[in-house]
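Q: I have 295 residues here and want to know how they pack in 3D. Can you give me a structure?
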Amino acid sequence: YASREAGSVELSTEYGESPVSQLHLHGQLVYLATGGQYQLKGSSGATLRQYTSADAQLVLLDISDPVNPEVIDIPTPDGRDTRPYVLNQNLKEFGFTDLQYHDEQLGAVGGNRFYLFDTTLATDPLLIFEAELDRGGDCSASYDGEIGSQAHSLVLDRSVAYISGNFGLKVYLTGSRPRLLKSICASELGGQPSQLQRVGNLLWMLIPSLHQIVAVDLMSGDYQIANRIHLNDAAQAPLPVSDFHIVGEQVFVGTAQRASIALFAVRPDDQSVFINEQPLHAFKAGADVNAKQLQ
């Protein structure tokens, strides 16, 4: 798919395993988060074993020399030493699950935590807010059979943070005084939301258990559901879904291990329609193909 890399850098394993889960390119810097799942592949391309890491690190890379990228060491609070990360936590079960940047603010979520950094000084992010993404009293029913909160996705936009997880949806103001603005239980949404995307005045969220993408009206004040896209294929069978991306009046859907990209036309009043589905092809026999993440 691509030529050899121009350069590479090894992340420190002194403080735990460091599989990369998310990254953000910012000029000649890369903000990088670790955690999640990674797979051990055999020579045939087949998966031999899957690993999960709860080690959550926020790491800063200098890529001003693309042939020789370097980890930027961050001074410790007492100034006596340095460390190869901005933040190091253990966030069960999957470490950091999302990392987003907007208007000199960097947000990261994982486990039951939300971290917000001021990046006015880009090489020295300052933690300005931290919150526990708890279940909330009325949301306890959404956790039947589960252990603890698990954040999935984060959107930072216009001084507001939207966070999805098995708890539902949480909305935080991220201005001069960050605070929780709204909490919506998963039961109110009909299921646990995963991926998020804001388009105009709508926040779209994927609810895998319903095989639906649901739009919430951000201008109504009460976050009412404004539209639903039912993710059924040409035979009206529900599609397995791992991610989506809306472009104009179309939405692309990744179908995970079904290994295809489905296309829908977005229509109001729950009338969106399936257009087509394109399978992904393995270039090596026996290799795993997974349409897991869209960008």
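Q: Anything worth noting?
A: The chain is about 0% helix and 45% strand. The CA atoms of residues 107 and 116 lie 5 Å apart.
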